[in-house]
Amino acid sequence: MSHPVILHDYWRSSAGYRLRIALRLKGIAHRRQSVDLVAGDHRSPDHVALNPQGLVPVLEIDGQVLTQSLAVLDYLEETRPQPALLPADPAARAHVRAIAQAIACEIHPISNLKILQRVEALAGPDARAAWNRDNIAKGLTAIEAMLDHPAHTGSFCHGDTPSLADCVLIPQLYNATRWGVGFDHLPRIAQVAATCAAHPDFTAAHPDNFDPSREARATEEETP
Ligand SMILES: N[C@@H](CCC(=O)N[C@@H](CS)C(=O)NCC(=O)O)C(=O)O
């Protein structure tokens, strides 16, 4: 019996955006279910039943309910190995994972909605943007140094095909732009951004395509 693949996410969620890219790169047909973070839908009993952490994304696949985007990316790679989003060489795999984790475990968590709301409550509305810009700018500077290594040349984060690192970096760059943090001065990141901006699976996953003010299609069937 085949199970429908359902991605529960919010159009501006960068963790959800990671999975939107990976699902397309791997050609996995799916349906998207919008969870409106601004309206607080992620705290509803229905959503908390899917994800006890009350976060997006959640992926229903193969009869499983999966949470934590990096764990979901690993699941997709293990169950649908082609096209590979991890290189074959163990050292290269470690590097790709290190980039993904540097973003997902270091930069992203302290830019999260609940953290920004707490910073604003403690230190005022200006502190929210200052905190976030500083965090993203410092984080991207470190990522640039990680990418700028002879063993990891290419038009993507590693080599000339997309990897898990690109699935995580591109949403972080979307966040950077939203918050007015530029990255033109970081040549490797700018190169990866330009490469992915010309790739149909990355453009199809872009948040603008899911902006409810542009198009009310929260539960519409989508194919990669
Ligand atoms: N580590 C989690 C992070 C998930 C996460 O932080 N999701 C955000 C949206 S990008 C969220 O649901 N935020 C709700 C909130 O902060 O209240 C993952 O990678 O899935």
Number of domains: 2
Q: CA-to-CA gap between the ends?
A: 21 Å
Mean pLDDT: 94
- The CATH C-level class name of the largest domain: Mainly Alpha
What fold name stands as the CATH topology of the largest domain?
A: Glutathione S-transferase Yfyf (Class Pi), Chain A, domain 2
Ligand kinds: glutathione
Tell me, what's the shape? Answer: globular
CATH-defined architecture of the largest domain: Up-down Bundle
Taken as a percent bin, the fraction of beta residues is: 5-15%
Helix-strand category:
alpha+beta
Largest sheet: 5 strands, mixed
Residues in helices, as a percent range: 40-55%
Low-confidence stretches: 217-224
> What letter string, H or E per element, gives the SSE order?
EHEHEEHHHHHHHE
Cα gyration radius (Å) = 17 Å
The total count of helices amounts to: 9
Side-by-side strand order of the widest sheet: 4-3-1-2-5
Q: What's the number of extended β-strand segments? A: 5
